[in-house]
Input
Amino acid sequence: MKYWFTADLHLGHNRIIGFCNRPYKSIEQMDDALIRNWNSRVQPDDIIFIIGDFCYRNNTNKNTYARRLVGKTIFIRGNHDKNNATKTSINYIGLSLGGKSLLLIHDPAEAFGTSELTLCGHVHQNWKFKTTSSGLDCCNVGVDVWGFRPICIEEILKEYETWKLKRGR
Output
């Protein structure tokens, strides 16, 4: 069993292609590619945390998408999940994985506490890693910076250590 993370899939959101300069010609092509990329990595017993914005607001196709995806999903609410079929009441999760304390929250501006690393989404293609003004290290697990696929905890932590070394930390 592996632990996977992703955010900002925005399944069913045709305007996200232009907003984020995604390399797809249609919403169907994007949705199919995101689902194919997910299923090429995640196994049935794996756990995948979706840190917000699974599908577009007012989208009632959540179950249609979810049935096509491999693994056991845990939804964390994003700003576009308030009015869609995700219906999660989870705003954030704290956990320990890979020897690190983690906070999982959609918007990095809402990160808090003393976790070593915050996993977030919301910022799309803007950055992979960043230290917030309050001194918290954040990793954007959104599909726009990870090749339109989920990322496992081992890959995140490897890149995090490389990022810290480059910064002299």
Notes: DSSP finds four helices and nine strands in the chain. The chain has a mean pLDDT of 90.
